[in-house]
Amino acid sequence: MILLDGKKIANDLKVEIKRVVEQRVEDEKKIPHLAAVLIGNDGASLTYVGSKVRSCDQIGFKSTLIRLEENISEKILLQKIYELNQDDSLDGYIVQLPLPKHIDEEKILLAIDPNKDVDGFHPANFGKMALEMEAFIPATPFGIIELIDRYGIETSGKHCVVIGRSHIVGRPISILMSQKGKAGNATVTVAHSRTKNIKELTLNADIIISALGIPEFLRADMVKKGVVVIDVGITRVPDKGAPKGYVIKGDVAFDEVSKKASAITPVPGGVGPMTIAMLLKNTLLACQRKD
């Protein structure tokens, strides 16, 4: 069984990106600049944004963290996004999700300049991705493709079951896995909360990508021997015995499924680190497009 070590591959990517940045410095070219907009004090969001800022420091990017109050009005937030769109010093920026309930998430994402949308959530980027045109690919699906490719996992002609249909992971990865190119050419089935025969589908899958958000949903009796499993789930499960009062669980019951899998991602340390690495790669691409 191969452990698909996202932390290692993400670190390899950061080293590669750092070398490119160092060469840009030598050539007196612009240094990539990433900004993150964080609204409120959500613990998970604070941790995630903090990781992004530290990663920028590690590879020589410029980074800006914009902290806004939880009760900010939608109008003022849209004004801030307009300012970021006009700021030529910024190559890309992200608005950390989820947003407060009084703010229309779709309206905010639509307001982001597609050329700075390094999260790859804008419909312009999503549409171009689906048409196999140059676009910013959403960071998590981008990371999954990179992880599969770097471990040399065969996908061509394989049956891939994607569990989950979100616009952030499930839908885009189902498109990418079926496209021509690296880590593609698979026959893809998308399963979701209304699918009645998930076990039947997963038992016939060569590759399973689970982005459901239900801890330990995928069990050993739902997979066949030799399956490749990509676990995108990351849920905080309360645990009074844990130092932080919770433990992180993926969608996959790792201990039992790993005994049947030929390759599997751990949680944490699998897809999560790849997401940040690909966000950095998108930011570098945004900067290079301006050269």
Structure summarized in a few sentences:
By secondary structure, the chain is an alpha/beta fold.
Keywords:
alpha/beta; Rossmann fold; 2 domains
Can you walk me through this structure?
By secondary structure, the chain is of the alpha/beta class. The strands form three sheets. It has a six-stranded parallel beta sheet. Helix 1 (6-26) packs parallel to helix 10 (271-289), helix 6 (139-150) crosses helix 7 and helix 6 packs across helix 10. The longest helix is centred in the N-terminal third of the chain and has 21 residues, at 6-26. It has two domains: 27-113, Rossmann fold; 139-272, NAD(P)-binding Rossmann-like Domain (Rossmann fold). The termini are far apart. It contains ten helices and eleven strands. Helix 2 links the parallel strand 2 and strand 3 (62-68).
CATH class assignment of the largest domain: Alpha Beta
Q: Output the CATH topology of the largest domain.
A: Rossmann fold
- β-strand percent reads 15-25%
Poorly predicted parts: none
Strand order of the largest sheet: 1-11-8-7-5-6
The overall pLDDT average reads 96
- End-to-end gap: 44 Å
CATH superfamily of the largest domain, by name, is: NAD(P)-binding Rossmann-like Domain
**Largest sheet, described in full?**
6 strands, parallel
- How many strands? 11
Principal-axes shape call: globular
User: What is the helix/strand order?
Assistant: EHEHEHEHHHEHEHEEEEHEH
Helix content: 25-40%
